């Protein structure tokens, strides 16, 4: 494992709010005892004093990222086992469930959840699964409601539907009138009664025909509103694997030796490899001379078309992804055989995402990136320069450094557009990232949009006592000239403040000063902070663990 020189930070005792989170010290003590190690032996292996280790085990001192990695190495454990990332993720899901209006009248004590997690984890997993199913159904109901509203608007604006609605109302009025006559006038002779009955039958038939015709018109091309989101299923696949796929890492390592002739795995190396190994014809076209897509792959003619307007880092990534499609298809398909992917659309999206993972593993070798990340203290811009990557590419690659025994800092990753729509998300840091709706408007990912191209850093405090370092910057994507539309995104990574000293973005930050931390939530619906002036939606009833803040 790569060694990171670091010394234990001098810090004040952990606050009561911090103790609400799963305690790392308890895990260290339990793991040490399970291995029959003394405090003296573990302290010596980690390079700290027994007295300091004793304070850590009793949760009286926080742990910096480098020290936690050394302790995990000494115990023969991945650092994720000590930080309780899976437990934190589960507790985040339970907090999201507790914020639902559904539980408004229930006195849920989330302070007891960590204890319940230790005794009956399967029960809480079942509860989280039930909540996820409830949210999917809520989404379906919401989608159906929007569909009904769209149909209502369509009825009011479409001339055919307006005319048909008038015809339906006319026949309904006629049927009701003749029915009331038959009910109220018992002295009708048989001829009159039969006339009215025949009229009723005729109007009913015409009403049925008109209604059938109209519903056929409405349902044609109306779209499917059922089913869960393929993107959500792909998210679950990556969470299930901890955002790390060893088989794809191995496949990328195997291919790199055949491709890399210059030692840099340049775009020219990738293009030459495609041409010579796979018979791919590569065409570089000027913007506007071909289809709108910046890159197009035709498997039948085995032709790859790349726009010359693509940045080199993007063209390199797209080319590497095609190598993955051609050389790692079997490995990718093995990961698709899971119950998490329930539709063909979800499998297609997962196939593309896994090919993208392979591309990053091919361009940015695991060991080299891990070593450089610790050497440069996760300075993303310096890492970009070293590996010829874009900001987003490097941020995403850093989140995949989860190899047991050779792990990087557990990070979270989030990408939004300028409207706040979330398009990519993953968290190994313990920070809950919203899936339903927008993220807290006070997060750095939104503030970064005010200073395009510049890095924004932020220390935040969550209502449950957790604290995190957030690092965000905008990225701009375009594939044309002056008139070509440009897409602007904000990309954010970060970590728990326990690991923050190992990142350059922590320099100058007052980690021990609560006043320097911005009070935030996850999303407005889940946030109990009553006096926040940026609230966009009303909060659900605050659970017992909540605190209030600005």
Can you describe this structure?
With 550 residues, the chain is of the alpha+beta class. The chain is built from 20 helices and eleven strands. A hairpin with a 2-residue loop joins strand 4 and strand 5 (406-407). Helix 7 crosses helix 8 (121-157) and helix 9 (159-184) packs antiparallel against helix 10 (190-219).
Brief descriptors of the model:
single chain; 550 residues; six-stranded mixed β-sheet; three-stranded mixed β-sheet; 11% strand; globular; disordered N terminus
Global Rg: 30 Å
**Structural class determined from secondary elements:** alpha+beta
Q: What share of the residues lie within helices? A: 40-55%
* Shape label: globular
| Main sheet attributes: strand count, strand direction, barrel closure | 6 strands, mixed
Strand content of the residues, in percent?
5-15%
Termini separation comes to 42 Å
Unreliable segments of 5+ consecutive residues = 1-22, 221-227, 541-550
Total number of helical segments? 20
- Work out the number of β strands: 11
How are the strands of the largest sheet arranged? 7-6-10-9-8-11
Q: Indicate the mean pLDDT.
A: 80
Secondary-structure blueprint:
Blueprint: H1 24-34, H2 39-46, H3 50-57, H4 65-75, H5 79-83, H6 85-98, H7 113-119, H8 121-157, H9 159-184, H10 190-219, H11 230-240, H12 246-259, H13 267-278, E1 281-285, E2 295-298, E3 303-307, H14 312-327, H15 329-336, H16 344-363, H17 366-375, H18 380-387, H19 391-399, E4 402-403, E5 406-407, E6 412-417, E7 422-427, H20 444-447, E8 456-461, E9 467-477, E10 487-496, E11 518-519
Parallel strand pairs: 1-3, 8-11
Antiparallel strand pairs: 2-3, 4-5, 6-7, 6-10, 8-9, 9-10
Helix pairs in contact: 2-3, 2-4, 6-8, 7-8, 8-9, 9-10, 11-16, 12-16, 13-14, 14-16, 15-16
């Amino acid at each position: 494992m790569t060694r990171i020189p670091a010394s234990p930070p001098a810090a004040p005792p952990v606050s009561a709010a911090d103790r609400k989170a799963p305690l790392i010290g308890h895990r260290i003590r339990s793991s040490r005892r399970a291995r029959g190690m003394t405090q003296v032996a573990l302290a010596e292996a980690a390079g700290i004093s027994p007295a300091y280790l004793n304070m850590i085990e009793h949760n009286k001192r926080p742990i910096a990222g480098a020290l936690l990695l050394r302790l995990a190495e000494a115990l023969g454990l991945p650092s994720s086992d000590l930080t309780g990332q899976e437990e934190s993720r589960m507790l985040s899901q339970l907090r999201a469930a507790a914020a639902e209006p559904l539980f408004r009248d229930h006195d849920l004590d989330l302070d007891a959840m960590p204890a319940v997690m230790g005794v009956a984890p399967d029960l809480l997993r079942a509860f989280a699964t039930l909540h996820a199913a409830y949210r999917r159904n809520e989404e379906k109901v919401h989608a159906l409601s929007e569909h009904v509203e769209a149909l209502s608007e369509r009825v009011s604006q479409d001339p055919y539907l307006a005319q048909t609605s008038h015809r339906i109302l006319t026949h309904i009025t006629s049927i009701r009138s003749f029915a009331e006559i038959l009910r109220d006038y018992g002295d009708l002779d048989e001829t009159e009664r039969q006339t009215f009955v025949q009229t009723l039958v005729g109007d009913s038939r015409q009403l049925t025909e008109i209604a059938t015709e109209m519903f056929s018109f409405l349902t044609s091309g109306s779209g499917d509103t059922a089913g869960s989101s393929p993107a959500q299923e792909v998210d679950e696949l990556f969470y299930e694997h901890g955002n790390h796929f060893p088989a794809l890492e191995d496949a990328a390592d195997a291919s790199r030796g055949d491709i890399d002739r210059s030692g840099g795995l340049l775009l020219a190396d990738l293009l030459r490899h495609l041409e010579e190994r796979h018979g791919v014809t590569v065409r570089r076209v000027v913007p506007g001379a071909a289809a709108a897509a910046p890159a197009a792959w035709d498997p039948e003619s085995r032709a790859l078309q790349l726009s010359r307007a693509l940045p080199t880092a993007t063209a390199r990534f797209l080319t590497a992804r095609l190598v993955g499609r051609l050389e790692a298809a079997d490995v990718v398909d093995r990961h698709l055989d899971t119950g998490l992917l329930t539709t063909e659309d979800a499998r297609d999206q997962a196939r593309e995402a896994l090919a993208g993972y392979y591309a990053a593993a091919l361009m940015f070798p695991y060991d080299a990136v891990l070593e450089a990340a610790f050497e440069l203290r996760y300075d993303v811009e310096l890492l970009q320069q070293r590996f010829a990557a874009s900001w987003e590419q490097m941020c995403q690659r850093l989140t995949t450094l989860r190899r047991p025994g050779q792990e990087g800092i557990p990070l979270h990753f989030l990408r939004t557009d300028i409207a706040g729509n979330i398009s990519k998300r993953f968290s190994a840091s313990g920070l809950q990232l919203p899936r339903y709706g927008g993220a807290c408007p006070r997060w750095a990912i939104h503030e970064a949009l005010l200073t395009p191209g510049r890095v924004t850093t932020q220390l935040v405090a969550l209502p449950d006592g957790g604290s995190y370092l957030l690092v965000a910057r905008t990225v701009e994507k375009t594939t044309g000239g002056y008139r070509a539309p440009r897409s602007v995104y904000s990309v954010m990574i970060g970590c728990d403040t326990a690991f923050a000293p190992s990142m350059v973005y922590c320099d100058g930050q007052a980690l021990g000063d609560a006043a320097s931390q911005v009070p935030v939530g996850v999303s407005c619906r889940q946030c109990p902070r009553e006096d926040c002036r940026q609230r966009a939606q009303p909060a659900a009833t605050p659970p017992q663990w909540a605190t209030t803040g600005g």
